[in-house]
């Protein structure tokens, strides 16, 4: 029998084995991640309990607000610096997804996250579609010069509150997509293609309320894929899912991978 984790309740363990079965049968698995996959790395989500929007008003953090005044940018840089520009490490959920890739079970990851942790977990960049950019980079809105985030962190830590571009004095902005800003179209198109051509779509750690990202599981289901949702709270797509696993991604994903490995071993032994 697959290895059991002591802390996981029996009902959830049964769902984990069913999820492993589905992954085992799948030919094209798309993993779709949201902020919830990274909370166990120490990065707060937006809408979960204690999330960023329980402390700040999202309307204060639109693209339009950011470009409209230096005072707004200063506020924004404080949050970016403290939440998204620290060094974080992949947690067991990221590592389990990377293991799915090593086992040859992963078509691609589509992520709403900007934290670079899927790359850091060892999944190659060409299998990762970042719908909302990546805040490991900072970009000048005038001349397009890109800076590694570490350089800007140093300038912020040295007392610059709204650091300008060193080449043209233009406005610098973290290279993540803000509310009110368009998604990178070529990445969105690739993500739609993979969602419409997968046979299994697994949502991990997302409320599924931010569009257009939240359309992707709908496209996948409409095209005939099965849906698994791993999330701590309800989502609008729960009733469309074959399996909903309620709990921590950092516990559930490693357990799915353990169970999958047992299945793969017994298949090889036959
Ligand atoms: P969200 O905050 O709306 O939802 C996160 C969901 O994950 C919630 O339902 C929460 O209950 C669940 N969750 C939290 N911790 C979990 C865990 N350990 N295991 C399982 N589920 C867990 O986030 P979203 O749906 O990704 O959408 C919001 C936007 O947030 C995206 O646009 C994304 O760009 C941005 N964001 C990114 C990061 C990051 O890069 N790490 C962090 C915050 C927000």
Structure description:
By secondary structure, the protein is α/β, with parallel strands linked by helices. The protein has helices at 10-25, 63-68, 70-84, 92-102, 117-120, 149-157, 185-196, 215-222, 249-269; strands at residues 29-33, 108-111, 128-130, 133-140, 146-148, 172-176, 200-204, 226-231, 243-246. The radius of gyration is 20 Å and the shape is elongated. The chain starts with 9 loop residues before the first helix and ends with a helix. Residues 1-5 have low confidence and may be disordered. Bound molecules: nicotinamide-adenine-dinucleotide (NAD). Nicotinamide-adenine-dinucleotide (NAD) binds at residues 34-36, 38-40, 43, 45-48, 51, 112-115, 132, 205-207, 210, 231-233, 248-250.
**What's the overall average pLDDT, rounded?**
93
Query: What does the overall shape look like?
Result: elongated
Structural class of the helix and strand makeup? alpha/beta
Q: What characterizes the major β-sheet?
A: 6 strands, parallel
How far apart, in Å, are the first and last alpha carbons? Answer: 15 Å
Rg value: 20 Å
User: Quick one: how many beta strands?
Assistant: 9
- N-to-C series of helices and strands: HEHHHEHEEEHEHEHEEH
The low-pLDDT segments are 1-5
Strand order of the largest sheet: 3-2-1-7-8-9
Strand-residue proportion? 15-25%
Task: Name the quaternary structure.
Answer: single chain
Bound molecules: nicotinamide-adenine-dinucleotide
- Helical fraction: 25-40%
| DSSP summary: helix tally | 9
């Amino acid at each position: 029998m697959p290895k059991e984790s002591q802390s996981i309740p029996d009902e959830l363990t049964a769902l984990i084995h069913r999820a492993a079965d589905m992954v085992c049968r799948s030919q094209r698995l798309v993993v779709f991640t949201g902020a919830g996959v990274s909370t166990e790395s120490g990065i707060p989500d937006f809408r979960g309990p204690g999330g960023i929007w329980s402390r700040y008003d999202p309307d204060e953090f639109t693209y339009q607000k950011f470009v409209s005044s230096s005072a707004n940018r200063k506020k924004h840089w404080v949050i970016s610096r403290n939440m998204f520009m620290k060094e974080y490490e992949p947690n067991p959920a990221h590592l389990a997804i990377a293991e799915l890739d090593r086992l040859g079970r992963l078509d691609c990851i589509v992520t709403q996250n900007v934290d670079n942790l899927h790359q850091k977990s060892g999944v190659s960049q060409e299998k990762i579609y970042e719908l909302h950019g990546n805040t490991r980079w900072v970009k000048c809105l005038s001349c397009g010069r890109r800076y590694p985030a570490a350089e800007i962190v140093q300038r912020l830590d040295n007392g610059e509150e709204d650091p300008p571009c060193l080449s043209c004095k233009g406005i610098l902005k973290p290279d993540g997509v803000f509310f009110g800003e368009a998604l990178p179209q070529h990445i969105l198109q690739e993500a739609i293609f993979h969602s419409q051509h997968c046979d299994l779509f697994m949502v991990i750690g997302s409320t599924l309320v931010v569009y257009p990202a939240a359309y992707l599981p709908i496209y996948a289901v409409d095209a005939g894929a099965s849906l698994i949702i791993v999330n701590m709270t309800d989502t609008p797509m729960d009733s469309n899912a074959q399996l909903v696993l309620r709990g921590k991604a950092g516990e559930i994903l490693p357990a799915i991978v353990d169970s999958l490995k047992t299945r793969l071993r017994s298949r090889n032994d036959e």
